[in-house]
Amino acid sequence: MRFSEFPFLRYLIFFLLGIGLANRDFEFQPIWVGGVLGILWIFYVLAILFFKNRIWIAPLAYAQLFLAGVFVVQLHQKPSTEQPILGTPLIAKTLQFDIEKPRSQQNLLQVYAYQRDGKWINSKEKILLYHQDSISLIPESILLINKAPELVQGPKNPGEFDYKAFLQKKEINYTLFHPGGLKLIDDNHLTSNTWLSPIHWRQGLANLIQSKLADPQAQKVAKALLLGQKDSLDKNIRAEFADAGVMHVLAVSGLHVGILVSVFLFLVKPFKLKGWKLKVYLIAVVIIIWLYAMITGFSPSVVRASVMFTLITLGQMRDRKPSIFNVLAFSAILMIAIDPEVIFEVGFQLSYVAVAGIVLLQPMITRWWLPSSPWIEYLWQLAAVSIAAQLATFPLTVFYFHNFPLWFLPANLLIIPLTFLIMQIGIPFLILGWIPLLSDFLGWVLNSLFQLELWILNLFKNIPVTKLDELTIFPLTMFCVWGNLLIWASWDLFPKKRLVYIACFLTFLWAGNRVINSLIKSNSQLIVYSGNEGFAFDYWDGKQLKSWNQGVGVEELDFKVKPNRILNGWGKWPESLQAFSLEKNLLFFPELELLIDIERGMIKHEYASFSKVEYWQENEWIEQEKNAPLEIGNSSVRILF
What we know:
By secondary structure, the chain is α+β, with helices and mostly antiparallel strands. The longest helix is centred in the middle third of the chain and has 28 residues, at 374-401. Strands 1, 2, 3, 4, 5, 6, 7, 8 and 9 form a 9-stranded mixed β-sheet that branches. Strands 15-14-13-12-23-20-21 form a 7-stranded mixed β-sheet, with no helix packed on it. A 5-stranded antiparallel β-sheet has the order 16-17-18-19-22, with no helix packed on it.
């Protein structure tokens, strides 16, 4: 196996390099990039037609791919403009059905116009609405709202989840909580085209699940697993799936598409179709796969699996067997070209890394044992797939979620076959749900299977230690891990001496990175976190973390304080930072020589000695003058000693 056998893998690398450059702080005019791209293409064609020496063809092709990556990003970038303050009243339409939340209903609004200074101003802004109204909103409902929405704020603390960036990727810049009394102007805009839209099909299938499955928890899991609707899942269910290492089951993914394909291929297997009949059937299966992808919301993992199955099917119809790596790389190029931002989505990254890991590592793992029994061999093959996927994805899992499930292998051995059975029943249930008695029976079977699945997950939940928590990994370490996994997968394909040298280089690179990070970690610093109604101190003296909490709740600590502790590797159990109350609203910290005015939200530092003061703004530390007044509450403050 040689790298030259996978041309689309090479194309993807240069395409990604262009994407990466364009996402840096460089200014590129799309017209100039497009012009240079066109000139390179002309030279490329001339080189093919008129030059016998082909030495320039490859560099010209890779240069075009690189510039294509830059050009794609430029085409999708929107000019950064300051978001307007939306006045009231405003007129907006709903874009979806209500989604049930613990204390409210959620919907998405598209603003038509808003009033400011007595004038109506047209707008296309989107608002994430939370309301407690008795009416249930449906798509295309027109609302008159007399409450002003709020701009979504960015994180105030390092490591805190950036909800603003998350919503901006969906072109949402505002949120609005409405206690009730929404004024519905019109809800009769449902046309025949609207009823044919995927959102109505999805809602109709969701209503079918709710009407035929008796257990409320089973309903929520069914909507997530079969339709990709995870918004109604509560935290406890998510935690059970995540802690057991089977969260991928809830995300409609390649697993579900694979099961769907196997269902349709199994149905036609007894007929032994050949020739044009088989081709027609395969085309029908491809169409069904894309309809399913549309209904489930075109998640990155489903699109990846759908593209791959389509390409493999087209190859089979032409009596060809395309390389899985070429298919994987081509599907990635296609998805990135449509939306360059998709490469920053966790689901996209996990999906592609998992498939690559399974293809590369699963054959290596299955060699460890050759069972004689077909049933044991099936379980071993399933275990090998699970181990390969976990080995490939655990660096990303630790990087984003800071934990690792310990019981992923037995959980997957139980849950994946059960999920396969659920999909075998669930797909006919969704298709034949209009038949009264049959849908009742299939609904009862599905309800029982989902209850069994939740019962199994509850067993894993009750195990004393289910996961390793508060882990951290640096980007360089991730690439070192992946590099060593590639060396293992390539052990029988390349000279072993060369692979050993590469492994040693990666090890020295990792060790050097550890030394540098330990030196950075030894610096003493104080971070003042900003809470909703209080603040918290973290003082790292180079060896030990000491903390002080002033009005930050337990749940807030998990989201606003702990992420930064994990990123810095400061440990779970800080000591208490000593403080004295001098008088009302004044706290003195003798170890830091700092005085805090709680009422005014000020740090008095006349007698403290430190080298630098920084505020957390726009996801980075911004240095401030040391002699300037230090305010706390609006964003985090970092003091370096």
